Amino acid sequence: MICPATRLSSLRQLMESQKVVRVMEAHSGLSGLVVEKAVGTNGAKFDATWSSSLTSSAIKAKPDIETVDTTARLGVVQDVLEVTSLPMIYDGDTGGQAEVFHFTVRSLERLGVSAVVIEDKTGLKQNSLFGTERKQVLEDIDTFCGKIRAGKDAQINPDFMVCARMESLIAGLGEEEALMRAEKCVEAGADAIMIHSKEKKPDEVLSFLREYNKFSKKVPVIAVPTTYNVITEDELAENGVKIIIYANHLLRASYPMMTEVATDILNAGRSKEVDDKIMGVKPIITLISDNTGSGAKKAN
C-alpha cells in the first residue's frame, strides 16, 4: 500500500503537471479498482478518486442528509485507499462545526486523502441536484470562512487541500452571490473553489468562470458536470477548470444492471439467462487476488 503522505502530495503534483485532473467516484474497494484500471481507447486514465457523500449514503440505502457519520464514511475511504494508489478527494458535506471539522481534516490526512471539499450550506442537508425544489440555506459567509480557516489551521501536511464549494447557483441566488462568496473563501485560505450547478447547459458555470478568472487573487477551480454533461473536459479546461469530478457515475451504472439481473433470474427461475450480462466468478476473484498479492503462488 502506498505511503499516505506520498499519496496525499500526489494530487498537487498532478495539478502542476497536467492541463486537467480527471476524477471518478469510488464507493468501495472494488469500484476503486475499476477507476484505477480503466483505460480509454486513447490511453486516457482517471487521475484520482472522489469519495462522495451521496454514494456513501446510497450504498447503505440511506438518504443523502448526512445520516452516515464521518466514522462510517472514513471506513469507505480506507477500503478504497487500501487497494488503490490514486489520490483521493473527499466530499465533506458542510464540514459540520469548525471544531469538528478540525478533527475531520486530521483524520483524512492520516489516511492519505489529498483534499476535502466543504459546501457553504447550513441546516438539514439537501442534495444539491434537488436545486430549488428543496430549501437550500446558505451558511453565513463569515461563519463558513471561519470553518475554512479551522481546516487550514488543523492540517499538518502543507500539500493537503481544503476546498470551498459554492452553492449559490444551486440555491437560486445567482452569479454575483457566488462570486462574492468565492472571493471571500479565497481570502480565507481555500485551496480551490468548486462551482456547482444543476442546469442541463453549462452556461451559468461558464459565466461564473469568466468573471472569476478576472480576480487578481484566485485558486484552482473544480467542476462537477453531472447535469451539464454536454461540455467536454477540454472546454472546461480552456475556461480555467483544473479538476473535473464525475461524482456518482459508477454507482448509478450498477443499479440498473443489478435490477435487470435480479428480475431476469426471477422470471426464468434460474440464473443461466443472465450469464452473458455478468462477469464470471473466476475473473473477478483473479482481479482481486492479483491486485492484493494474495494469489495462490504467494500463499504457497
Task: Briefly say what this structure is.
The chain is built from twelve helices and ten strands. The protein is of the alpha/beta class and 300 residues long. The protein is globular, with a radius of gyration of 20 Å.
Sequence-ordered SSE layout with sheet pairings:
Elements: H1 4-17, E1 21-25, H2 29-37, E2 48-51, H3 53-58, H4 70-83, E3 88-91, H5 98-111, E4 115-119, E5 121-122, E6 137-138, H6 141-154, E7 161-166, H7 174-188, E8 192-195, H8 203-212, E9 221-223, H9 233-238, E10 241-246, H10 249-268, H11 281-292, H12 296-299
Parallel strand pairs: 1-2, 1-10, 2-3, 3-4, 4-7, 7-8, 8-9, 9-10
Antiparallel strand pairs: 5-6
Describe the structure.
With 300 residues, the protein is α/β, with parallel strands linked by helices. The protein folds into 2 domains: 4-250, TIM Barrel (Alpha-Beta Barrel); 256-299, no CATH class. It is 46% helix and 14% strand. It has 12 helices and 10 strands. The protein has an 8-stranded parallel barrel, surrounded by 7 helices. Strands 5-6 form a two-stranded antiparallel ribbon. α2 links the parallel β1 (21-25) and β2. α2 packs across α4 (70-83) and α4 (70-83) runs parallel beside α5. It is globular and about 60 Å long. The model is unreliable at 294-300 (pLDDT under 50).
